[in-house]
Amino acid sequence: MMTHRERCLAAIRGEVPDRLPWMPRLEFWHRVRLRHGTLPAELRSLTLTEITERLDVGCYSSVPDFTDRSNPEAMVDRALGIFHFPVFPYRVTLQDVDRRVTRRGEETTVEYHTPVGSIRTEFVLTEEMLDAGASMPWITGHAIREPRDFDVVGHIFSHLKVEPYFDGYLARRREVGERGVAVAFLLGPACPVHHIMKELMTIEQFFFAMYDYPEKVERLAAEIEPFYRQIKQIGADSPAEVIFLGSNYDDSITYPPFFEKHILPALRDYTEVLHQKSKYLMTHPDGENRRLLPLLVRAGFDIADSICPYPMTSVRLEEFRADFNDKITIWGGIPSTLLCPPSTTDDEFRRSIDQILERYSGESHFILGVSDMVTADADWDRILYITDRVARS
Q1: Looking at domain 4-91+163-392, which CATH architecture does it have?
Q2: What is the pTM of this model?
Q3: Per-residue pLDDT for 6 more than 90?
């Protein structure tokens, strides 16, 4: 019998595992239930990793736990899209920058003073956000708010020191063991321009900037590029089999011409580098991908984490499967709404799960998961039903 790790890697390689890999992303569900004291009684003394072992399901270990506060400085540069978590396979140090941090209750203000000017960022993580399962602070003051801020952010990124750091990743891999694949997470944005859009500006300001002063956007992207080049090389040189880069593609925001110009080449070129080292690239589409489907295929990456099918988006699971055509491994496939009784009846839930398992058991390039994650209102008995059906498939 294969381990969960062996099943997952076999599916990615295009082999047929002994049964369908089942790796639900449980951390949001677990975090909220633990916070509110509503975990099933038999799970209350267990860690999340131990819960996956008790269930005999794969341990999802792709996106880091951004609620880990063992390092108080881990989130200090959140509004720059730079993180300092030990599980990341690299470390970043800001140089030639005077950084001043002020914390007032739930809000953090960070001032960055450089030889070319200063910027101020703010972000917040409230009790209400934590109650809902949030793990990432909300940016209330972005790094770039006016044209002169581009130069300051460019100075910060062009003076970063980036070093390999595998200790935290290796510790996580040992913890996961044969329960799953410990993915090396690089960054949520896929490329520098995506980074500017996703982290450094409001979406409205970004699109205005693309029209009003594209030269500033292009120059900043060029100044961020060495950072991306370094972390991608570190990922390629890391001990991980699977590398995570890029997330949250939607055909109305990362619309097809934008995706084709900026994101597609970044994913395609990095995939080629990783394949030379017998590694795989995971990216996280997690959005409305109808008009992006042919571009996702052309990007050539290996694993589409968090495929969100109908009714969460307009694309049905069989359409993703047909377009990916055994070139891209689907990781996901179960809409999170199926696990929530207010959204789906028990009969509809069981019928949908049974159809998925009847269709995709015995195939490769498919890892069953919940898209994007198992939410706090998911029914525990439905998780158990899927687990039992997978074991018998």
Answers
A1: Alpha-Beta Barrel (3.20)
A2: 0.95
A3: yes
